[in-house]
Design brief:
Number of helices: 7
Mean pLDDT: 83
CATH topology: Butyryl-CoA Dehydrogenase, subunit A, domain 3
Low-confidence stretches: 137-141
Order of helices and strands: HEEHHHHEHH
CATH class: Mainly Alpha
Strand content: 5-15%
Radius of gyration: 29 Å
Shape: rod-shaped
CATH architecture: Up-down Bundle
Largest sheet: 3 strands, antiparallel
């Protein structure tokens, strides 16, 4: 379950790179001549969300295999994603910029990308924190052979002596 949540968080960051983070509307339309009314994650952060998303995928894979440092890195990626959303985007989600200077009825609202990057960061923080606290989730795999007990070794020794005695007769 944690693997799926972590995968979802990383994919959400990748998708948020190309989704609209801030959308400006004038009246009922978001299409204004000679004005950029939509800012994507790429427009606002460049490749940062993409890099964090791919890094999260790598760290999730390593963390699920038991690498504790990778789990700490996954928490850091979650915190960095949330910092981008809250420190850089949240203060500007209602800023109309130059479109608001020209059009009095311009409004700006958070787009889908803002919610995707916030949810992606929260999921990565949740998964990383859970893996830190509870450790790696056990998965199906080969079981280690059990070490022979002294009783079974003693029984084997008796069986060998009995075979030797029987063959000597």
């Amino acid at each position: 379950m944690l693997a799926l949540l972590g995968l979802a968080g990383a994919v959400l960051l990748l998708v948020a790179s190309f989704a609209t983070v801030i959308e400006i509307t004038v009246g009922t339309t978001s299409k204004v001549v000679d004005a950029d009314t939509a800012q994507s994650g790429w427009d606002r952060h460049g490749p940062a969300l993409l890099l964090l998303g791919f890094l999260a995928l790598f760290l999730l894979f390593a963390g699920l295999r038991g690498a504790r440092v990778a789990v700490v890195g996954l928490v850091v990626v979650g915190v960095a994603s949330l910092a981008i959303a809250w420190a850089w985007d949240r203060p500007h989600v209602h800023d109309t910029g130059s479109v608001g200077d020209v059009y009095a009825d311009a409004t700006a609202d958070p787009g889908t990308g803002y919610y995707l990057e916030t949810l992606g960061g929260a999921l990565l923080l949740l998964v990383g924190g859970s893996l830190l606290v509870f450790g790696r989730t056990p998965g199906p795999g080969p079981r280690a052979p059990e070490a022979p007990t002294s009783a079974s070794a003693e029984e084997r020794s008796r069986a060998r002596r009995a075979r030797r005695a029987a063959s000597a007769e």
